[in-house]
Structures are given as C-alpha cells and as structure tokens.
Design goal:
The structure holds 2 protein chains of 2 kinds.
Chain A: H1 17-34, E1 56-58, E2 63-65, E3 79-80, E4 83-85, E5 98-99, E6 105-109, E7 113-123, E8 136-143, E9 146-156, E10 160-161, E11 171-172, E12 180-188, E13 191-201, E14 206-218
Antiparallel strand pairs in A: 1-2, 3-14, 4-14, 5-13, 6-13, 7-12, 7-14, 8-9, 8-13, 10-11
Chain B: H1 18-31, E1 56-63, E2 79-81, E3 100-102, E4 105-106, E5 111-112, E6 122-123, E7 136-137, E8 143-157, E9 183-191, E10 202-203, E11 224-225, H2 236-239, E12 245-246, E13 256-259, E14 261-264, E15 275-280, E16 290-292, E17 295-304, E18 310-311, E19 313-319, E20 322-327, E21 332-338, E22 351-365
Parallel strand pairs in B: 11-21, 15-16
Antiparallel strand pairs in B: 1-22, 2-22, 3-19, 4-5, 6-19, 7-18, 8-17, 8-22, 9-10, 9-13, 9-19, 12-21, 14-15, 20-21
Amino acid sequence: MAYTVPNTFSNGTVISSEEITENNDALRNYINGGVSASDISTLNPWVEAKHIMKGLYQPITNEYEMESGLSAGSPVFPFYHPGYFGSQFHKKGGSGRADVPNTHVDFYLVRDATVFFYYTISPRVLAPLDTSSPTNVLISLNVDGSTINTSQNSFTEQIEVNNSGGADEPIVSRYRRRTYSYQYVCEMTAGDHTIKLVGQSGATSVPLKFYTYSLQAFY
Amino acid sequence: MGNVNLQKFYPDNGTANATEVNANYNAINGSTQGINNENVGSEGLIREHFDFNPTFRYADWQDNGYYVAEGTTLNLDAQYRSLTDTGIATANKTNDADKKHEINHNGATGTASTQVGTGTKIGVGGMADSQNANGIQLEVGDVIHVFWNVTAWRFEPDNSTLSNYVCELVDSTSTRSSILNYAMVVYPEFNTQDSLGSNNNFTDAGDGSHGFSSDTFRNPADGVAPLGGGGGVSDPNSTGLNNLTPFADNRTDHWTWIPVMMGSGGSASGGTNFTVAVMMDAENGASDTAIGAAKQCAGQTYISVTTQKTLYAIQLYVSGLIGLHYNTSTEKNGSFIEDQAVTNAQGGIDGTLHIERASIGYVIYRKEAV
C-alpha cells in the first residue's frame, strides 16, 4: 500500500509541528518496512540486471548465498542424442570443418569472465561397406569460431579385426562405443559467445549419442 | 512513478506555505504508488566489492601445440617407451627411469622441453616470467581440480610378430600372460619446490615431504615386476621387484588407463586361431592388426588440500606398460609395471606409446569468508 499522508494543511493557518511530525513518522514507517508488493510498478518490465543483487554459488558445498533473483538446486544438465553427423554435412578431406548439428551452446556474458566448459558425447560410427578400409570421423571443440585442436578425437568405423585367417575369432574394438569428453578453461569477454562441436567425416552417417555439457562462468 | 522533486523552504523560500507542504507529501505519496527503476539503487550489494573471484583462486589451461596429420610418424620425443626398451628386445630393461616419463613433447615439431608452460608442465598461478611460475600458496580447505586429455596416436609393439603377444587368457597353451589387461597410464604429479618446475621435484599430491594432501596416492611406477614368472603364471608378488600395487589401499582415481592391445582366443582348448591387434595406430590406419586410429583419452581428479604449500607446477606422466593382477593371498587387485621383453622366455610385453596432442588444466577452488 502506498504511503498515505495523515495530515493536509490549509492556507492561512499555522502548520502544526505535531502534524508535520506525524506525516514524517508515517513516511519513515513506510520506508522502514512498509513497502508492499502492490507498490511495485507492473506497468512495464523495468528491473534490469543492475538491480539484481549478485548471487554466489559455492560449487564445493553446493549452496547459494546472497541470493536475489533466479536460483536452482542441483544442476541438471541436458542429456540427449543430437542426431547424426557425417559426410553429408562435410566431406572429409575438404577444407575446414562442418558444424556437428545440435551441439551448439549460445550464451551471453554480462561482463568478462573465466569460463569452464565440459562435454561428453558418444559417436557411434557404423560399419563400413568395405571393412578393409574403414574411415574416420574427427570431432573437435570450437569456441567462437576457433577450433581447439587439442580437443580433437578420432572415431574409426566399426570393423572386425581378424589377422589369423582360417577358423579365426574376430574381435570388435572395445573403443567402438566409447564416450568422448573434454574440459576447457578460458577467459572470455562480455558479450555473446558460441561453443559448439565441429568435425570432418569420411562416413556417410554417424549416430551421435549421449551428448551432455556443463558451462560455468565466474566473474 | 519515479523520482520525486520537493519544494525547498530554506534558504530561498522563507515561508512554509501550506500548499507547498501538501504538495511535497502528495508527491511522495504518488511516488510510492508505483515504485520503479528510478526509486531503486543502481546495484545491489556485490560480493566482488569485498573480494575478487571468491569462488576459485585460479584457473588455467594449456596444450602442447603438437598437431600432425594422420599418417605421420611422431617425433621420437613423443614416443614413450615401456620399461623394456625398444630396440633391446632381447634384454631386460634395468633402467627404472623408464617406469615413467614426463609427457613433455611440445610445439609444432613435438620436441621435448622441460620448461614450465610447455608440454604438459603447466605453471600454477600464471607465469612470473618466461622461465618461472608464480606459484600459489595453497590453504587448508582448498580443492584442486586437475583435468587432462592425451591423444594416443599409436601403440608400437617392439616385436612385429603379434602372435608373440598372445597371452594365457586367449590361449591356454601359451606361456604368455594376459594382454587384455595391458595398458599405459597417464597421471599428474605436482611440484611444490621450485618455480622453475624442475622435473626432480615432481611428486604425488600426498608425498610426505612435498605434498599437500593427507590422501595417499598410488603412482603406477610404484610397482615393478616381471610378468611371467615362468609357466605363464602372472604372480608379481612372488617374482616381482617391488611387487604388486593394490588398488584398494590408495587412491588411483587420478589414473587415465590407456589400453594398448586386445585379442581374442581360439577354441576352448586353446589353439592357434587367435586375433591380436593394437588399439590405435593413426600412423598406418585401421587394419586387421589395428583397431582404429588415434584415441583421445581424458582424465580428471579432485584433491583436498590439508597441508599449506606453495604449488608451482603440475605435469602429466605416462607409465611403462602395466599389467593387472589379483593376489589370491591378499585377495587384492592391483597393478605392476612389466619389466620383461616379449621375447624373454618368461613372457613379458613391451612396446612404445606414441602420444600426439595433449592438454592439461586446473582450477583451485577456495571458499572465502565475506
């Protein structure tokens, strides 16, 4: 409820000091805890980031303190199957690399920050038509258009290895369904950023499974 | 309603006119009927006004910058041997230095470097100059998160006849022991002694004199043993030099296990119809003796600081070839580094792991009081 003025004065009469004090006391009481939700303007969204008290997440103890605004409990990161990647997106051997679909993370930093990014994904390269010459798929992390070379991983088409001939016992790589993970730390400036996976492929179609990531920014 | 402008009474307006006084109070009343952005401060209380970066003390990441095209033979400095040396296949390796190697190849040529900031030797707290790391004084309660990736480019057995690597698990008639359990291990060590990051001063985080953690860490090189022991019996407890390294007694979560070979057996009674292949060979490509191209392997660990130390650098190491073993007396699983060559009558295993690109990063978390 808005501040209500207790006393109104009339021209030509003495302004009572007692009534002035009563008006001021009412104003003091309003300021000191009398503001209610109905007093907040709802005509237009006006609260900006600068009005929000900065919360602080303690990852070690998993608690939030000095909180104002949105908060969440234990983080639940996305976990999904992005779909497919393959030479239909980019033919291996060509220049550059193509985006791996559905792996983008777009975000906005209010100010310069130290950013931690972590992801896992499990590409399942299918068996080739000709098992004597399996092809590879290369996938890397890409931050704002720059590929992080160290993150590159290689996935070979699933083949049966068989080197003894005759009544042999072929084997399939234990790596054929491996999970690929990578962590990266960098300094980023305020503004828009994009983190994504890019790759090259000699295989036509590569199923991508179990993609998940975590993103943290510390100001 | 926004800002409120009030009539002043002194010194320019000597009379408190009732109309003016009423106007002042009405203005205040009107303002409180719709508090908006003009009525609030520009910012709330921000913790960084008290202390900058309160949730972590420092974070950094580096890579070795060594990237080559498939089909390339890596620089010799990027080829890490087993304890049984390449080129000395008929002799037992006696140089314990090959129990582990610093992963220190660096730059476009993959040339070894011992300098902080190159290879996988990352300075803590940034670099004071081109040679020295700043170091960070760890405090009790800090938590260090170390994470890394290495690209296993190729495993090159010393002996080109892969059937020599057939083990008892895939061929009961062979005197060879298990190849399925063989791997090389990548793990970090820490330097709390000098800003130059001398290799002589790297130890595990729980080292009695240099470490900063009360946890006991097991390094792969702690146990060295000949595998075979005669008759294909894998029992390093009875034959080994430093014996088995039990997993249960110490932390091994900082190990990145890189399998290097695998195989399949023939008939149930053994026989010759087996298949053996190396796990990765990006130099020659996948084939009937190579499962696939390069394999990138990731690892990470968290360590709680219990002793105040200045940490200067962290570096990755790769072990010699490691085997697994179960001790029926102690009923513990463990590992050991093989020191016998494959051609040795007792049946060992040897080879070289080629590592291409590698990266390492860390975050030191510290909970600050306000």
